[in-house]
From TrEMBL:
Residues 9-235 form the DUF6873 domain. This is DUF6873 domain-containing protein. It holds the Pfam family DUF6873. InterPro entries: DUF6873. The lineage of its organism: Bacteria, Bacillati, Bacillota, Tissierellia, Dethiosulfatibacter. It comes from Dethiosulfatibacter aminovorans DSM 17477. It comes from the Bacteria.
Length: 245
């Protein structure tokens, strides 16, 4: 059993520099595995196969449940099996790509995994429907610090719910096989620190992003010296209670 450990779930294709820098920060790294139903560019993206809930546990698609149960067992991280398997096309591939920030859940709700929706209902979490089904990909969640997104619809919904939100330009983030990746998929947030997969110097909104984070008192870590790249969110988990089934 590990004690007081932060775990980072990250795409199996993440570069050695990123993984080594996480380890230097005393963060245990769990890599995803290839999910053949998903398209090649995103078949290792954590935010496509799992949803992080408020208790620092995860809801995982049924196909990947046993893998993550084994990987995360030493950390007593709560892991629940989702109801819906993933499809290979939109919207069947977005079941677990919702965003929970505080007491509000954002997603294309008619495509959300049933267990996630049951959890939201049980906790009296407000569910807000947005058109962008790749909601987590598109969104940096900062808890009470608000959100950063490149999607105008998510931005509008977040502001209407009282969140401080920053809208940034689309693009300028790498993702092989697509024109560009997304800011949410290129970052991970834990302990008041936002981790970037790479540098954001070439993003036209770099200054606005850094100013927004500075004003919120949020620290930043750049895990590589390469340009920022979409790895499907670095999902940080804290050692928690015994696993539920």
């Amino acid at each position: 059993m590990y004690e007081d450990k932060t775990v980072a779930v990250i795409d199996y294709r993440a570069g050695g520099e990123i993984i080594e820098n996480l380890k230097k920060l005393n963060i245990h790294v769990v890599t995803t595995r290839r999910h053949d139903t998903l398209s090649e560019p995103v078949n290792g993206h954590p935010d496509m196969v799992m949803f992080k809930d408020e208790s620092s546990g995860i809801i995982v698609c049924p196909e990947e449940y046993n893998y993550y149960e084994e990987c995360l067992q030493p950390f007593n991280i709560k892991i629940l099996k989702g109801c819906n398997e993933l499809g290979n096309k939109y919207p069947g591939n977005i079941r677990y790509n919702g965003v929970l920030n505080g007491n509000v859940f954002f997603h294309k709700v008619d495509s959300t995994d049933a267990r996630i929706l049951d959890m939201m209902k049980g906790r009296n979490i407000k569910c807000i429907n947005v058109n962008q089904g790749y909601t987590k990909c598109s969104t940096v969640t900062l808890g009470s610090g608000g959100i950063i997104t490149s999607d105008a619809g998510i931005m509008k919904a977040a502001v209407e719910e009282g969140f401080d939100a920053l809208l940034i330009s689309s693009g300028y983030i790498g993702l092989d096989g697509y024109d560009y990746g997304f800011i949410g998929g290129s970052t991970g947030f834990v302990d008041n620190t936002l981790y970037f997969t790479g540098r954001i110097d070439k993003h036209p909104d770099c200054r606005e992003i850094m100013r927004f984070l500075y004003e919120k008192g949020i620290e930043t870590v750049f895990l590589s010296n390469k340009c920022i790249y979409d790895l499907g969110t670095i999902i940080f988990l804290k050692q928690g209670e015994e696993c539920e089934k």
